[in-house]
Amino acid sequence: FGRSGGRGVSRSRRGRPEVQIYDVAQGKPLEELEVPTGPNRVEFSTDGRYLAATIAGGVVRLWQTSDWTSLGSVAGQLTFDPGQLAVSSDGQLVAVCSRGTGNQEMKVINITGGDTVQSIRTSEMSFLPSGLLAVADDTGPFYLNTGSGSLTELPGGVAALAQAGDS
User: Fold this and answer.
1) How many other C-beta atoms lie within 10 A of the C-beta of residue 138?
2) Is the dihedral of CA 134, 151, 91, 71 positive or negative?
3) Cβ count within 10 A of residue 91
4) What is the Cα 34 distance to its own chain's centre?
5) Within 10 Å of residue 75's Cβ, how many Cβ atoms?
């Protein structure tokens, strides 16, 4: 879905905040997802099965893209302006990094449980298709295994990727 669809953030004709999903190839909207206040970041999972949005006031919301069902919403976990957003391939975790340069605060949130699983400083982060969370900081890259809704740091480099099947 992520390759054929686009993403946009706007206000609806009704004047309410929403996330609009567009079919770029056909040039028409597919879905309008209502949100309580202004959305500021949206991101699809690597396989396009999930869409996450950060919403003004520190809310994180997740939808399943097959039928646009809301899978959960978490409030109060973000105390910063979101800059990066990533969704795990199983839709259980959402990683949000604060806006800025250098090492910024990143929180990994269990969207169904509503709790922060991990909070670390990072400059870049991204979920890999296997579910590994690739993270970069001042010391270099490292990987976090996100199985069972928890995070376990793996050794850096190719060994971690091979262990998770992302070679």
Assistant:
1) 9
2) negative
3) 21
4) 18
5) 13
| pLDDT tens sequence across 16-50 | 777 888 888 888 888 888 887 778 889 999 899 99
Give me the residues paired with residue 34 across strands: 18
Distance, CA of 78 to CA of 20 (rounded, Å)? 23
Which amino acid, residue 105?
E
Among 46, 40, 21, 9, smallest CA distance to 125 is for 46
Find the distance separating the first CA and the last CA of the chain, reported in whole Å.
Answer: 24
The residue assigned the tokens 């870049």 is 124
Task: State the burial class of residue 115 (Cβ atoms within 10 Å of its Cβ: 0-12, 13-18, 19+).
Answer: exposed
Q: Tens digits of per-residue pLDDT, 65-101?
A: 999 999 988 887 787 878 888 998 888 888 988 887 7
Q: How many separate helices (H) and strands (E) can be counted in the chain?
A: 1, 15
Which amino acid appears at position 117 of this protein? V
Buried-exposed string 6-22: b where 16+ CB fall within 10 A, e elsewhere: ebebeeeeeeebbbbbe
Angle, CA 44 vertex, CA 158 and CA 70 arms, to 5°: 130
For residue 144, what are its two tokens? 């976090």
